[in-house]
Amino acid sequence: MVRWKFDDDPVTEDALMIGECAYEFGWIDIDKLNINLKIILDKLGWKRERIETSINKLKEIKAIMIDDNKESDIFLLHE
Question: Which helix (H) or strand (E) holds 33?
Fold first, then answer.
């Protein structure tokens, strides 16, 4: 089981959208994030600052792994 841990920051929705794009384009290798800013800029039409803020937020989101009802590990994306 996994429990997501993130706040209600409005940037979180943008971060999850960036995450979906990263998954769609194959830019996630286990826990390493390799974003192509040019493609994201073209695909989403956002300003660079919004994308960078969203990527930083995405890297703050924690997936806490639960084994036998106990937290066993934390999964984070990094560049």
Answer: strand 32-33
